[in-house]
Every structure is written in structure tokens, then in C-alpha cells.
Amino acid sequence: MSSVDLHRLAQEMGPQLVEDRRHLHRHPDLSGAEQATAAFIGQRLRRLGLQPREMVDGRAVVADIEGGAGAGRRLLIRADIDALPIQEQGPERPYRSEVPGVMHACGHDAHVAVALGVARALCELRPQLSGGVRLVFQPAEETAGGAAEMIASGAMDDPVVEGALGLHIWSGVPAGQVGVRDGAIFASADEFWVEVRGRGGHGALPHQALDPVPIASLLVLALQTLVSRETSPFEAAVVTIGKVQGGQAFNVIPETVRLTGTVRAFSEELRLRLLRRIGETAAGIAGAFGATAETVRGAGCPPVVCAPAMSNLVRRAVEASPGAELVEPDPITVGDDFSLFLERAPGCYFLLGAGNSAAGITAPHHHPEFDIDESCLAVGVEVMLRAAMEFCRSGSGA
Ligand SMILES: [Zn+2]
Ligand SMILES: [Zn+2]
Fold this sequence. Notes:
By secondary structure, the protein is of the alpha/beta class. The chain folds into two domains: 3-183 and 303-393, Zn peptidases (Aminopeptidase, 3-Layer(aba) Sandwich); 189-301, Alpha-Beta Plaits (2-Layer Sandwich), CATH 3.30.70. The protein has helices spanning 3-12, 14-26, 35-47, 108-125, 146-152, 212-228, 268-288, 308-319, 339-342, 376-393, and strands at 53-55, 60-66, 74-80, 132-138, 163-174, 177-179, 183-186, 189-197, 201-202, 237-245, 252-253, 256-265, 292-301, 304-306, 325-327, 347-355. Strands 1-2-4-3-5-16-6-15 form an eight-stranded mixed β-sheet, with helices on both faces. A four-stranded antiparallel β-sheet has the order 10-12-8-13, covered by helices on one side. Strands 7-14 form a two-stranded antiparallel sheet. Helix 2 (14-26) packs antiparallel against helix 4 (108-125) and helix 8 (308-319) packs across helix 10 (376-393). The protein is elongated, with a radius of gyration of 23 Å. The protein binds zinc ion (2 copies). One zinc ion (ZN) binds next to loops.
């Protein structure tokens, strides 16, 4: 099939892509409860004649598309499927979320629609497809647990995949543009808690207590020096304390103060060092006052690192797609557990531009008025399709 035909194939499925995306947008599922979304995906894939497998308590779906053009490589394409605990606001859109307090405010509805479009196109292109493509619909990206669960359930095995591609739509990039980088594109993302324990008492008699409030306050400031004083100015990292909890009354010194925060870094080495130093700094500062601090690391994932050969594959796909413009984005300090797939297979995670300032589509991700320019959906299908066809063909001897 010529390059023009692939373009037409993607463009012609535009209305279906929009319909799927809007259905999902109206019916979002929170991380950990994606059964209805997974059932919808399974039904769509069965309609194509595929045999999707459910995983992770019916919250995840995997489907293999076997090529009809002989031996080749096997590519994994991943779409995350979960939504966020956000009440949708803004203009009264016909596809507004029908679930109170839950919204596709990160655009994973678009990721599913694009992956279903790729499945539909690959089923048509099967006679020209070498090797095979595995579509992986992953739950619980927002809570950073879904990728690990799927990999543990065998999502990358039997037969083993040799490369991985994923995309994130991005409202900060205009629709029509596709952002591709070598190396890290998204940061690592980790949650941590520090519990500073002193000794409670009367607010008027601080000398008889061991007040954890000033200790926790010093610690919040001290943690900022892990980036400003201990990290090279040429390396980006973030340490944020997003939650401070302690105390019940104006005249009572509490027993404990709990700090909750996140760490972001673009290398695994820096990520691990910052996590270690948070614990050491907390213990040292609390210890200086005779108090204790226990640091616990929560859910997290490594940085999303693209293999240059796979980024080049996507770059070629963008350049071959009429109407798509290749750009190179700066790394972004959000995280994504697609990184766990990339630890096991070379791959590329790229940004599919979805913003449109002329149409007022400018809200950032995780914002209650988040929306996308739906023209990006067909662009995503075309780029993914071209990259998949080329990846699976190489190694086939063709
Ligand atoms: Zn998100
Ligand atoms: Zn997201």
C-alpha cells in the first residue's frame, strides 16, 4: 500500500476515532477500576476478529495481530486507559464526563481511540504486515502500578516483544505537531512520606514537649537544598512537598507531623540518590533535635528513556505523514510507567500535539477544563501505523 493510501486510511477513520474517544470521555474509569473501559476495548477488538485477552482482574486487555507477510519482528504498542478523580468543568461539551468527580483529564481516552484505530488499520493491512503487533491496553497509569502488574502477568512475553512504542497526547504542543526525542522525555516519578515524631504536650509549655512542627518546617526547607546544592545545575530534578499534616488545635503540640512529596529526575542514578538523601536528611535533622523521622517510599517509576534507533523510526514515520510536523520537545518533568516497558525492550514514547489555541484548547493536563483538538487522533494513527509497519518488516529479510 502506498504512502498516500496509509494517509487516506488514517484520515477516513477520523469519525470513528472521534466516536470512540467521546464514548470513553463520557464514561471514564478511575485507576484500579477500569473494568468497563476494558470491556469496551475487548468488544471493539473482537469485532475486528481479534482474540483479546483480559489481564489484571479484567482491568487490562492484550491483543496480538499476526502479520500475513511472513517472519519479522514483534512490536508492542501501549495505550493507558485510566481517568482521574477530577470533576469536569468548563464549556458544556456534548461528550462531557457522565461520571461525577471522574474525568479523562490526561487524554488517555484519546490514547485508547488511537490504539483501536491502529488495530483496525493493521487488520486491513495484515497481508503486508510482517511479524506481529501486540496491543497493550494498560490500567492504573496515573497511580503508577498498572505497567508493573501487566509485565508481571506476561504482557511482554510469549512470544517476546522486541520493541515498544507509545504516545502521549500533549495539549502544550499544537495539533499536527509530533514531538520526538532521543533519551529521557519524561522524568522518573516517586512518592514518599516522612513522619517526624516528637512528643506532644501543651502549647504553652513547649519545653516540656518535643515539638515536631518546627522540625518538619526546617526539613521542608532542607529538602530543597538536595536540588539547589547537591545536584549539578546541568541536571534537572524536582523535590516537592505537596502535603503537610500535623496538629489538631492551636494550643496543642502534636506528637507527629507527616510530610508527603514527590521526586522527579531524568536519570535512574539521580533518582535513587535523591530518594536516599531524603531519608538521610530527614533522619539527620530530626536527630539533631532528639526527634525521629521515618521515610517511606511509595509507588514510583523510572524515567521514560527513548532508544535513538526507535526515535528515528518514529521520526521517519512523522516525516512520511502528510500534515504532520516533526518537532523536538524539551524533556517534561511528569512521569509515566511506560518506562517499565522501555526497561525491557528498546522503544520510543512520543508526544502527539493536541492543543489548539485558536479554538481555546489550551488547558494543561490534569486540569478540569482539559480537552483536545480531535484532529490529532488520525495523525496519531498514521504515525503509529507507519512506524509499526517498518519496525515489523525489518528483521524479516525484506
Ligand atoms: Zn496524567
Ligand atoms: Zn497521562
